[in-house]
Amino acid sequence: MSCIRFNTPAQRQAMRNSRPAMLTPEEAAALHPAPEVTESKVRRLRLLATDPNPKIREAVASSYNTPADLFETLAADPDEGVRGCVAKNEATPCDILRALADDRSETVRGWVAVNYFVPADVMEKLASDRSRTVRSLVKWKASLAEDQPAAV
Hints:
Helices cover about 60% and strands about 0% of the residues. The chain has 10 helices and no strands. α4 packs parallel to α6, α6 runs parallel beside α8 (about 105-115) and α8 (about 105-115) packs parallel to α10. The longest helix has 16 residues, at about 130-145.
């Protein structure tokens, strides 16, 4: 006996007719709202930011709910991975991204270069960075902007 099943055209059409509708990203987000940011959550982030494990501090640096003053503290973290997470977080304030553009680590400066919300003056500065990798990331990001059709 064969384990292959052959559906008739009518069966295939019935399956197509009963498939679930695809949701837009906005509809899916409306069905699954993010929990509100409470004072308790902010306290927890502050506590975790002092953890000796750099991976825990990276998680705090990656959170969109991290307060600005905590981003400032984490931007000065001795661990390059933590500073990199601050640099790539879209919620990081521009002044902190500006400071991280001078970081001793080319990896951190590279994350600043690819952050979508980095100010234009910082991008100009990074375009002449001492690291070829950082300069390449700046060029790559600029090429992406050129490929975008103009907004109508």
